[in-house]
Amino acid sequence: MHAPTESRAGADAAARPEAMVERGDVRFTVLTPRLVRLEWSAEGAFRDGRTQVVVQRALDVPPFTLSEDGRFIEIDTGQLRVRYEKGTGRFGAANLAILVRRDGEPVTWNPGDAQKANLGGTYRTLDRYDGDTWQDGSKLPLEDGLIARDGWQVVDDTDGFGIDAQGWVTERPAGERQDLYFFGYGKDYRAALADFAAIAGPQPMPPRFVFGYWWSRYWNYSDEELRTLGARFEKERIPLDVLVLDMDWHTTPGLSLRPGHEHKDIFGEASGWTGYTFNRSLFPDPKAFMRWAHGQNLRITLNLHPASGVMPHEERYEAMAKALSWDTSTQAPIPFEGASQPYMRALFDTVLRPLEAQGVDFWWLDWQQWPESKSHPGLSNTWWLNHVFFTEMERDGDRRGLIYHRWGGLGNHRYPIGFSGDSVISWTSLAYQPHFTSMASNVLYGYWSHDIGGHTFDKKIPRPERHLEPELYARWMQLGVFSPVLRTHSAKEASLHKEPWHFGPPYGDAIFAAIRLRYQLAPYIYAAARAAFDTGVSIVRPMYYHWPEHEEAYAYPGQYMFGDDILVAPVTVPAGADGTAPFPVWLPPGLWYSRDGAESFEGGKVFARSYTLGEIPIFVRPGSVVPLYPEGLHDLAAPPDCLILQVFPGEEGCTSLYDDDGTSQGYRRGEFARTRVTSRRAEQLQRVHLDAMRGDYRGRPVMRSYVVELLDAGIPESVEVNGEPLPYSAEPKPRTWLFDAAWLCIRVDLGLVSVDEAQDVVARFAPEHAPPPGLLHRMRRAGDAVKYLKQVWGDISALPDDVDLAGQAARVLAYAVEEGDDAGRAERFAAEVRRFEARYAALPDSVGATPIDDAFKRGFAQMLGR
Questions:
Q1: Which residues contact 492 (CB under 8 A, 6 or more apart)?
Q2: How far apart are CA 446 and CA 545, in angstroms?
Q3: How far apart are CA 557 and CA 553, in angstroms?
Q4: CA-CA 20 to 30 A from 325: which of 370, 570, 684, 762?
């Protein structure tokens, strides 16, 4: 059961009467078998409305038993046993105990017990942090998460503010009271997240375009410069979905960061940070500029620092003053108060809505000022503004809420997405961000957006020495592919460029490849976003969610699961002299496959390998079916009518393709569709079955093209779809199959088919023609090693023939497959594979017999992985 949207006005905030046990000044509410609410009120008055953290309690009542005598009351859910001494008042260690039954090691909790092994939550910002260390040497003050190895957690909602039927803040109840939510989950961490999502609300799905590439830079861009930038993106064929404008979009009177030149405004804030009026010297016609951006299928977000209210120089000052009956005779600024309903209503109606009408799609809410509301002490301004801006957007028709902001505390997961702030550019920061991102899922904050490439250099580095290492940026972009949001950003430094075309080979190649891969993975990512809404388990999550009993799942925080099927360990160390970076990865028990499906690895141990710049440690569960978009997509809001289903080796596997309209809140109302895909593989046959699409939504397609890719499958004897044999084709054509030698995979093109009809793909094999394990990895390493050798070859003589042939193994194999009759195709392939393996085994000796320098021979062998 999911929490309501904010617009449902808290209809389900109160628990069902049969879930509650009330005795005088205490009330116990059984919410799930693992979650019990504990309330004590000196006046016997209990709270049933929404709070900042908890928005729904009307869950299905789980079975439980109630026992009591003259002294004790005992509630048993099977997972928990709550025992309280009646009439003893406030909960404490002497009168309340909860037994958590967990496999082999039950634990008893008493109020006041301290956790020993909380696994962390998140923090509002990474501003000026180098990894987890600030510029003064202090460590990031991470908040606790919901997950702890202790097997329990308590969320104290006693001091939480209320949220009324209109979604506005209400004061805390008066009187002495306690309001605690006890989670007892043992090692079932995912169940704990599901329980929290049930009462605190799910992670909303962002619009589909959010999962594309965002371009952002703190720079005083002009209209013309941004048009030129957009044209360059188009020329380079780089997809782009979101254009972020930092605060120079508006007028910034008095703004300066130079020592001795800073100014404060009348409210004591830095001058120029707050602004709502376009800088007409940069944007002479803002509406025309945003019309151009939308014509390029770009979404616009603008930076806001609202702390200084509305100044008299703002274009909308008079309208704002009129809405508030503010005296304008003295031209006094209108002060900010986010918890004032009249102020915020006027701000939206007279200032922000007109900007949205011109073309602003959503807001970057960059609150960095005083921590608490001045009218409601204790109410976090960050938390509250996130709530107000997000819910305001959801009230505007049926579009999904979306803001871009800093973490404000528990409950803020309902208002994605996060902006982690101005991290230091360093390998240390890169190495910390995978851990920081996955750890945030422990508070359901599944949509952190980082400044990919880092924001600013350490202040100790002199300006002439501030240069972004191309290798560091390329590796950071690879992390961005497997992050909730891929957004580059940087400080206002003229030398700090992150445009992909700014980097030459091999770094630019790796950056371009990363962006292309992100767009290909979009349907997999979008389905994972739906799963996060349904289950509470974020797209990026720690290893211990899946393998809580293994110590290594806690000991390797730089790797994580990306959705259910993909394990990622982004390389976060520089390469050595041989051009590869050693990066150990713990593979959980079971079989795992490489990203291309050509290598298998037995898990349950640490896997040590060095990676070239073009390689990312990506491992996939056997049998996985990973949906992809074809290359060339430039607008995620308009997905193509073709879907690639990449099927990994394994006896069986399945996935559920997910579709909705990508923009509305219809997904909350059941307006979506799923298509189940299953795969079964035996020695001589592989079957992939697509069910008919189930479900409906606005824009649901009638027809769709499918391409089924069977990875590491060898050459089949035959391929059929729904019992109809398909012919082989050397070029992609509907209703044919081909063999891609560069990936060693079969591509079966089903053509355009009805989504309401099932499709059954069968490939039959002869075991003697199966490729040897690891063939594709050896082919690619040989190609990389030969490229390296050509760069350092100091003689005008040619390379040995077998070296050249090994370096282009995929092309040689393709010729063997494509040329000749159908009957001999599999045998020709197998024969050419045997020849490659012989060449590969002899490569060190072949190169060793040449007069090339010994150092280069060693480099060649290292590139091969020898």
A1: 218, 219, 220
A2: 14
A3: 8
A4: 370
Q: Indicate the DSSP class of residue 348.
A: I
Strand pairing partners for 152? Answer: 184
Which tokens belong to 802? 């077998």
Instruction: State how far the Cα of 644 lies from the Cα of 628, in Å rounded to an integer.
Output: 5
- Cβ burial, residue 725 (10 Å; 0-12/13-18/19+): exposed
CB 81 within 8 A of CB 99: yes
Residue 318 phi, psi (nearest 5): -60, -40
| Cβ atoms 61, 30 nearer than 8 A | yes
Residue 9 pLDDT level (bands cut at 50, 70, 90) = low
- Quick one: which of 340, 335, 341, 333 has its CA closest to 317? 333
Residues 6+ apart with CB under 8 A from 649: 593, 597, 600, 622, 623, 681, 711, 712, 713
Rounded to whole angstroms, how far apart are CA atoms 406 and 449? 10
Q: How many residues does the chain have?
A: 866
Helix (H, G, I), strand (E, B) or coil at 832: helix
What is the spatial distance between Cα 265 and Cα 248, in angstroms, rounded to a whole number?
17
Long-range contacts (CB closer than 8 Å, 24 or more residues apart) made by 793-802: 793/852, 793/856, 794/852, 794/853, 795/850, 795/851, 795/852, 797/850, 799/850, 800/846, 800/847, 800/849, 800/850, 802/839, 802/842, 802/843, 802/846
| CB atoms near residue 641 (< 10 Å) | 11
Question: Which residue matches tokens 């799609």?
Answer: 361
Are 398 and 665 in contact by the 8 Å Cβ rule? The answer is yes
CA atoms within 13 A on the CB side of 823: 0
Which contiguous run of DSSP H or E holds residue 508?
helix 507-520
**For residues 676 and 662, what is the distance between their CA atoms, to the nearest angstrom?**
19
- CA distances (Å), origin 394, targets 330, 368, 402, 403, 666: 37, 24, 8, 11, 12
Structure tokens at 524: 């997999």
Q: What CA–CA distance (Å, rounded) separates 322 from 362?
A: 25
| Strand duo 418-419 + 448-449: pairing | parallel
Taking residue 493's Cβ as centre, other Cβ atoms within 10 Å add up to 16
Neighbouring residues of 384: CB distance < 8 A, sequence distance ≥ 6: 169, 338, 339, 373, 408
β-strands 242-245, 213-217 pairing: parallel
Position 4 pLDDT exceeds 50: no
Numbers of helices and strands, H then E, in the chain:
17, 43
Task: Decide if pLDDT at 18 tops 60.
Answer: yes
Task: Dig out the tokens for 588 from the structure.
Answer: 């959980």
Mean pLDDT across the chain, nearest whole number? Answer: 94
Beta strand pairing call for 703-711 and 745-754: antiparallel
Give the DSSP H or E segment for 304. Answer: strand 299-304
- Is the pLDDT at 62 greater than 70? The verdict is yes
Quote the DSSP letter at residue 704.
Answer: E
Q: List, in order, residues 6 or more apart from 41 with CB less than 8 Å away.
A: 25, 27, 175, 176, 177, 178
What is the pTM assigned to this prediction?
A: 0.95
Residue-wise DSSP of 641-686: SEEEEEE-SSSEEEEEEEE--SSBGGGGGT--EEEEEEEEE-SSEE
Give the Å distances, CA to CA, from 829 to 73, 648, 688, 745, 810: 75, 21, 24, 13, 11
Please state the φ and ψ torsions of residue 424, each to the nearest 5 degrees: -75, 140
pLDDT digit string (tens) for 184-224?
999 999 999 999 999 999 999 999 999 999 999 999 999 99
Angle in degrees, 0-180, between the axes of helices 223-235 and 286-295, rounded to the nearest 10: 10
Q: What share of the chain is helix, strand, coil (3-state, %, to 5)?
A: 30, 25, 50
Instruction: For residue 733, give the nearest of 757, 715, 750 by alpha carbon.
Output: 750
Report the pLDDT averaged over residues 406-435: 97
